[in-house]
Records
---
Amino acid sequence: MTTPTLLILPGDGIGPEVMAEVRKIIAWFGDKRGMAFDVSEDLVGGAAYDAHGVPLTDATMEKAQEADAVLLGAVGGPKYDVLDFSVKPERGLLRLRKEMDLFANLRPAQCFDALADFSSLKRDIVAGLDIMIVRELTSGSYFGEPRGIFEEGNERVGINTQRYTESEIDRVARAAFELARRRGNKVCSMEKANVMESGILWREVVTQVHQADYADVELSHMYADNGAMQLVRAPKQFDVILTDNLFGDILSDCAAMLTGSLGMLPSASLGAPMENGRPKALYEPVHGSAPDIAGEGKANPCACILSFAMALRYSFDQGGEATRLEQAVESVLAAGVRTGDLMQSGDGNPASTTEMGDAVIEALNASL
Ligand code: IPM
Ligand code: MG
């Protein structure tokens, strides 16, 4: 078998720092578990703009299409706020999602026991929380046409279009049901069928897919606004939440904050299987580029490390090794190692980005 290829796109802000720790982890799996990866690195976001005048070059896009998995750090920063919309760092990420057709965005919101007190909610509401949000990622109001800012009479009008085809809903619904079967076997689908036709169609198609092929999975429907409320009221009622691109953007931020630690949350964006059977895939932490602490060695590398764990599970069929890595991270937390984002003032000295990465490596060594 040929060595699987990994394309690393560190991006901006803390992206390069957290990715440096992931590279250590990748090397560890090569040395200690005989899992070699052919790793290459390239630019995305502001870093690509600085070098090439675009947030993602065609050449990088092509490499991403060919890679067995793409690992991305973060994009954006205040320096780029002045740029034209078409070359903003975020456009690089959106191009990757769209052109790789990564329609299923998996965003786990898991509350690590050692961190339950960091949530803004009470411990008993979040302790043990384990939700998976499946967000549709390549359609809906992020991409629907018509879009733009147009002249209308003597004023301008800004337009985006919420648009979903049956097949777009069908494929992401299947992804959610498949995942649910491997977890708590429950899917709650969220839309606004009370006010939007796209929501009515969403509910119909999800119900059809369920009846045809996944009747063994428990399915419920919720209006997305109620879903947001339920997420902060009683989040443990959920297992898999299935929702569209824009609602998913908002609901996943909400779910992330329940866990109290944005610095811990990974994500996977998956598309259709490639010729070798692996899905097109991009893995990235949920957090952003955190320009305020970039370059200071303060960033928490765990979300990016856990994103690599998701790559092991979903791209390379190494669920056991993924669990090994996840447990290593958990044991580091349980031992009290903390980057600054996981501490309250007066808690003592935070671990640096590198120290946190080293602690995970040590925990991996201990797992052998
Ligand atoms: C996310 C982000 C992106 C989005 C931005 C950076 C384009 O908020 O991944 O949730 O809106 O999808
Ligand atoms: Mg978002």
---
Amino acid sequence: MSTLSVPHLLGIKDLTPEDLDLIFKTAEQFKEVINRPIKKVPSLRDITVANLFFENSTRTRLSFELAEKRLSADVVNFSAAQSSVKKGETLVDTVNNILAMKVDLVVLRHSAPGAAYFLSQHVDASIVNAGDGAHEHPTQALLDAFSMREALGRDNLKGVKVAIVGDILHSRVALSNIFCLQKLGAEVLVCGPNTLIPKHLHELGVLVESDLNTALEWADVANMLRVQHERMDLPYFPSLPEYIAQYGVDRKRLEQLSRIPVIMHPGPINRGVELSSDVADSEHSIILQQVENGVAIRMAVLYLLAAQRTPHYTS
Ligand code: CP
């Protein structure tokens, strides 16, 4: 069996194009499984996974939990809000206490960039980064690329033009998508107000465009990002109505294009801000397909990481 080149999934930056291919091929098989009447396989029987969420999540947390259950893993869930973290316990102490209960894999979401890497250096378990601050969100980028391939009817993304639009500065999804799409041979453009585009982003080899109509006319796919009000300690644009006028996508804007791109959003959506409801719910949007594909991608990642730790469990 092929294996990943890494013992943890900390970021897309660490993966090779062969890793990406292996994850997509494995996810294709699991997508077929989760569309059967009996959606469960015994691949991770006797493997225990801890989902540690130190930051809010709906999609990622539920998607990992469902992926683990579809693979027949034993699952424990931890949410910082109801834990002894509130009494001052450190991340490493928290995780070591959980590992003492014989946990094999840890899925971690944390507000600190590098938290998943830090954990991987201090505990004996495979770590999956489910989002670390504004750094990386690797499974989101994997499910996004998988969904693009599916929507475009292609088995690769070579030469595909992807515009990432909105609050790039605070977005872990943007960075993981840039790394993933470039490794797959896609062209990437970022579009947003200058204040929400990191100064040195062009050094990553992406195009930078401030005009949304130009970006959408260029793109095969537009991945719309949420304005992350909760991470903004400064006013990055004059007002929300002005942001919407310049960077919001509604049907009228799409209908002026010579060709409408595939519309994506990682969620949660600020409806009426980055996307109007008539676009979010339109035939051009693949937002719910992204969510469905998230389960198959996370099953693939967990399966491949578990196979490295305990090859006798998976075959
Ligand atoms: N896309 C995403 O990470 O959503 P959640 O914050 O709800 O997990």
